[in-house]
Specification:
The chain has helices at 4-16, 22-34, 40-50, 60-70, 75-91, 103-113, 119-129, 141-146, 158-166. It is mainly alpha-helical and 167 residues long.
Amino acid sequence: SFDSEEVEGYKSYWQSIAPKNDTEEFQRWLFAFMSVHTTWERNVIGYEAIKDWTKWFNNDEKLMEIVVEARVGLHNNRVRFISEFARKFWNDPEYFKYENGDWQMFRDRLVKNILGLGIAKVSFALEMIYPNRAEVCCMDTHLFQAYGLDQSKDATRYKEIENYWLD
């Protein structure tokens, strides 16, 4: 029942805001880090505070100052996780790029190597980086609830509901 012109309009829009370089990809990751355990409003405020990563890269004291001032919470861990990720990303941006193959395997490899982001937030970042291509979904607590599940108790069913959503 979808209007094909409307679908194409959305696809064009999503492609127009997809990242076009490594900095824009990195910024999508930063947005995902700032979305952990915070409100949408604080997520946006926190992201706006750190998006110019050249001001804090390799300077954890400066990053801490920025994150504390943004009032996004979890300051110590958030700074540690973002700082470690930033070093890893800029050491090898290609490691974080999808080439080909199974999307879930790619995502799961990243989950194992990104401290501070779980499966949902890594999926969220990939959806922002590859809006028309990603074949993973950010199955957050609200989507678990839509399936009558509790994310904290039913986490092992993530891929089951993700696959249902993808199908």
